[in-house]
């Protein structure tokens, strides 16, 4: 009965709490992804995580800019524009060129950063839900850093689509981004 009823009933009966049952998995996440425990915050889903990261991003001030691409997840394009109304931050939209070769993609990001030197934050969808395009995340993050910007990497669609060996490839630090959702 305690396992199959509504949450308020499941938590009312004497037994390990939901948090106590989840704690071992929560404790394992930092080492799984190559992070420290104080660098990880778990959320209900990718959209919730990205909303929190974008809306609360600390380095934005009036007249700064944020960058998004046409292949980014629709909901993240919506939320990356949020600081425009709340803090006077300007959203910059770019189109990923066709053919979407690595060189063309990197050239488009470089051009956007040069044309908009006040970009402080880039929304980057690792695997586009629109067309399956896998973005060169490490190179874009390195480029962003050279221009004084951070990248928020949406990796929600990558797991399950890209090969992952949790002992090696899912080391998020390898993408050189500071923020992941």
Task: Describe the 3D structure.
The longest helix has 16 residues, at 18-33. The chain has 181 residues and is α/β, with parallel strands linked by helices. The chain is built from seven helices and five strands. Strand 3, helix 7 and strand 4 (150-154) form a beta-alpha-beta unit. Strands 2-1-3-4-5 form a five-stranded parallel sheet, with helices on both faces. Helix 3 packs parallel to helix 4 and helix 6 (102-115) runs parallel beside helix 7. Residues 166-173 have low confidence and may be disordered.
Largest sheet, if any? 5 strands, parallel
The count of strands amounts to 5
Shape: globular
Uncertain ranges = 166-173
Helix content: 25-40%
CA radius of gyration: 19 Å
- As a percent range, the share of strand residues is 5-15%
N/C terminus separation:
35 Å
Strand order of the largest sheet: 2-1-3-4-5
Q: Supply the number of helical segments.
A: 7
Task: Give the class from helix and strand content and strand pairing.
Answer: alpha/beta
Would you list the SSEs in sequence order as H and E?
Answer: HHHEHHEHEHEE
Mean pLDDT: 81
Fill in the keyword field for this structure:
181 residues, 5-stranded parallel beta sheet, alpha/beta, 37% helix, single chain, 7 helices, globular
